[in-house]
Amino acid sequence: MKKVVVCCTMSVTSSLLVIKMREIIEQRGLDIDIEALPASDAVNEISNADLIMLAPMVSDAKEAFEGAGAKKVVVITSDNYLNYRASDVLDQAVLALDE
């Protein structure tokens, strides 16, 4: 099972997105565990996560996550994030996990 952490400032918006993403993960039969965390807490999950997905408002933390040893870090596009396009964000995650 792959572990994905979606991060934003306080994890309010990302939590709503992750709820929708979990539904799609189940529909597609994917083997992905996903959770939403504030970026400040996500640093504690670096060693457990296969992918860290950053909301646009915390995109400046990308280098810090990479420097701390995150396996893979991507920034969610503003359009997908702000419009809760869970399917598109999940597609981005799957592509990143396959790289």
UniProtKB/TrEMBL annotation:
PROSITE patterns: PTS_EIIB_TYPE_3. InterPro entries: PTS_EIIB-like_sf (IPR036095), PTS_EIIB_2/3 (IPR003501), PTS_EIIB_3 (IPR013012), PTS_sugar-specific_EIIB (IPR051819). Residues 1-99 form the PTS EIIB type-3 domain. It comes from the Bacteria. The modification Phosphocysteine is found at C8. This is PTS EIIB type-3 domain-containing protein. Signal peptide: none annotated. GO terms for molecular function: kinase activity; protein-N(PI)-phosphohistidine-sugar phosphotransferase activity. GO terms for biological process: phosphoenolpyruvate-dependent sugar phosphotransferase system. Keywords: Kinase, Phosphoprotein, Phosphotransferase system, Sugar transport, Transferase, Transport. PANTHER family: PTS SYSTEM N,N'-DIACETYLCHITOBIOSE-SPECIFIC EIIB COMPONENT.
